[in-house]
# Entry
Amino acid sequence: MNWFKMNSNQKIGLILLIFCIVIWFFIIPAQVAGIRESIFPRFITVWILISSLFLIAQSWKNPPKKISHELLDNKTIIRFIAILFIFLIYILIIDFLGFFIPTFLFLVIIMLVLGVRDWRLLILIPLILLLSIHFLIEKLLVFPLPKGRIF
Amino acid sequence: MLENIVVGMGMVLKLDNILASMFGVTVGILMGAIPGLSEITAICLLLPFTFYLKPIAAIAMLMGLCKGGNFGGSIPAILFNVPGTAQAVVTSFDGYPLTKQGKSGKALKMALYASTMADTLSDFILFFLAAPVAAVALMIGPPEYAMIVLFSLVVVGVAGSENFVKGMIAIGTGLFLAVIGLDPVTGTPRFTFGSIELSAGLAVIPIVLGLFVISEAFRQMELILKEKFSENLNSRYQNQIKKTTNLSNHKVSLTEFKHCLPAIFGGVGIGSALGAIPGIGTTVAAYLSYTHTKRVSKHPELFGKGALEGVAAAEAGNNAVNGPNLIPLITLGIPGNLAAALILGAFMMQGLIPGPLFMQQHAPMLYALFTVLIISNIFTFTVGSLFVSYARHLTYIPKKILYPVVIVFAVIGSYIFRGNLFDLIIMFSLGVLGYIFVKIKIPIPPILVAFILGEMFEKRMRQALIISGGSISIFFTKPISLAFFLLTIFVVLFFIRGRGKNKI
# Structure
């Protein structure tokens, strides 16, 4: 089978198939102790395995209509991946800097990436939001927000 | 029974519950009305906070959110032809043409009347049917229960997707997520990869927020980057504002209401019948109710061009699902659709496990729930009526600002549930997973339903196997369990054949 000649459903099916084999032969023996404990995980693996075989067989018979991929220019893709990374970094640095500083930075940076250019909005929205979160959620409802290790 | 009803109502009629319900409805309508947010987002974002409320107040708030959001979603559908929710698409068929004729107020009011009326009627169906169904449900043991769960999983997976195989993959994924953590019977760790955080299992909240809020935010931000969507919406919105400032024709007259009554009752019938089956959901109900009304109408040619009956039928159909949908939830612990799954999550967080024993142990709770439903309908009607007059002046929040803020609230919600930063990483991962799944057209609601039912499914399955001494014949020799097994096979075959022919 040539990967580049396969349609999207066959690719999904093949990836799931490999996933199931890895789970069955490597992950379940290593991560699940005991036969009784592994009945259900193996049942699920078979469930996904049968589904993925079905998916491959089905798209062989009547292949899915080619989805006309809207051409994304490189700039958009880079920006989108940047958003994912900024989000990931944001939730990771909460552990060190607490809730408020990372959130402020996150909002400003994400809005900049998304194309907000009005600097009043860029400063005021995070500020108002964080102040209302502080008073409403921390002071009034007394929910603990993440405290950083440094601050 | 009468005693239980009185106790149940007494449990609800307290200030904090009523305030919770009113808060839920108001927030639900507001969030539903903002184009780009739905009642699902509203429930997801507020679910973590309900954990700290008393059970009834928590349920009251969620029901309020659900009903308020359901109505709220029809506001942008009618005003801007931008349905906030999938079921509101049908409302926009006739709602938006009415707006174009300058009758937006009339359409909004009709939507409100039809939805609250249908909702109330369908709640009575729940009220009368839940107890008998629960009595039957008490007779079922582990093997039957396991088969019923299997049946509902298959129905949820099959009904919710274009391609039933992809629905099955979603179910498998959800079950897999449910297995991570400690074994429910022996307590040995599974798939924890040595991590302490994973051994506690995945919590509902980060999964819900990741799958439905974060993945949606990712999708919307991708659209913003493409810069098509927001501009279109903006110009469309501005057009509408000009048209709707013409304030004539914004009332529903008594004759018009009477004219729409058959459509509403038809919607209630169709919606309620579909609602009792897990997995069918509101969109199908709204669509079937709409086509039925169109078929029996004397003026079918007006449909799609601004027939008030069309709005009434769509709204009645999708709201009539709400009551009966709770029958499988309360009696068997099986959520019929996404909103019910979220409410089941809330029940579980409160330590209440719906299912056959629920009615025995907490009989007044059912009547309390019923009272909550009626109260939230009353609030939806009153708050909605007030809101309809101002809906025209809805300010449009740019998505560039909306979605970053939504993400911040998801982060807060995910954290405050267990006070655990690891949950944020789970939320992020599921957000990415949900985003990819939507791209490759695997439906995400079945993942949540399977995740919630997973542990119960495994427990019952293994209990049955212990009873039978390890032989799987126990699932096929008991009549109820065999019946559900055959039903499952039937559903699968039906969809393979039906979908194969239509090639949807």
Q: What stands out?
A: The two ends of chain B are 48 Å apart (CA to CA). Chain B has 24 helices and two strands. The mean pLDDT of chain B is 83.
